[in-house]
Amino acid sequence: MGRIIPTERHIPSAAFFLAVLAIAFTYWIASLMISPGTSLDEAILFRPHGDSDYLPIVSALSRLEFGETSVWETAHQGLRSFPMAPLIMHGIMVRFAGDIGFVVADVLVFLFYGLALVYFLRSAEISARLAEVLAVMVLGGVANQFVLTSARMGADIPLTFWQSRFPRPGVTEVFVLAFFILAIRLIGRRGAATGVRDWLLVGVVWACLLQADIYQAANLTLVALLFAGYLLIVDTRRALRGIGAAACAAVICALPFVYQRLHE
User: Which contiguous run of DSSP H or E holds residue 60?
Assistant: First the structure.
């Protein structure tokens, strides 16, 4: 069972980091090259696979303003119902670095997802280099293009891979991968090796996902029930302690979501 976790620490190659950075910066560099007069505000506003409404939401969040941002008559009033969790990193970066902070956060999302995907694939005993290649293919859209091409040829594949659409699934899928990685760690170590730390992180990640993509949170709740059930059979006492820790962390971290629902 221990083999489910990578046995050696793997630091991704320089080529992997360069490839991820090249993919992450492609749009930002291309937009300036194709249209030199484009401002960074405009580049963010018309970022592909996104919604032009996200820029003012992130900008408002960077100033800790949680009210309306779209309707002039009710501007700054009430509490926005839009999920905040997937916007936090971009909001922090914009707060300290302005528009360039949005770009930095965007690049970090690519890096976080790429690293998480490599670790996830390594957990499936895929070789380090192949895991890096597959991760780059997903980040670069090659995997999705394969699915689309197969569909045109009559081989309909009922799945899609990660897309950079902000914030869903671009940011939210990082939470999903983190959840699966934690589940793998708990199952591989039978919930015992790291005490309650991983359980606490499960609760935190689930709460973040609840406030980012409630549908994925519902899906992963079923996953949590499965691996928690398995661990209860393997080691009931430790599993109960871990589940309690995860539940407490989830409840505490989900309080902003509850408050938002009550006052939106």
Answer: helix 54-62
Is residue 68 helix, strand or coil? strand
Left if phi > 0, otherwise alpha if psi is -120 to 50, otherwise beta: which for 7?
alpha
Helix (H, G, I), strand (E, B) or coil at 119: helix
* Residue 171 to residues 50, 83, 91, 249, Cα–Cα distance (Å): 12, 12, 13, 21
Q: Is 104 exposed, middle or buried (0-12, 13-18, 19+ CB in 10 A)?
A: middle
Q: Output the pTM of the full model.
A: 0.86
Query: Going residue by residue through the chain (264 aa), what tens digit of pLDDT does each one get?
Result: 445 555 556 788 999 999 999 999 999 998 888 888 888 888 888 887 766 677 888 888 898 888 777 766 666 677 777 788 899 999 999 999 999 999 999 999 999 999 999 999 998 888 999 999 999 999 988 766 655 555 555 555 545 667 888 888 889 999 999 999 999 888 887 545 456 888 999 999 999 999 999 999 999 999 999 999 998 998 888 889 999 999 999 999 999 898 888 877
Distance CA(153)–CA(174), nearest Å, equals: 31
Distance CA 6, CA 125 (A): 7
Cis, bond preceding 167 (omega within 30 deg of 0): yes
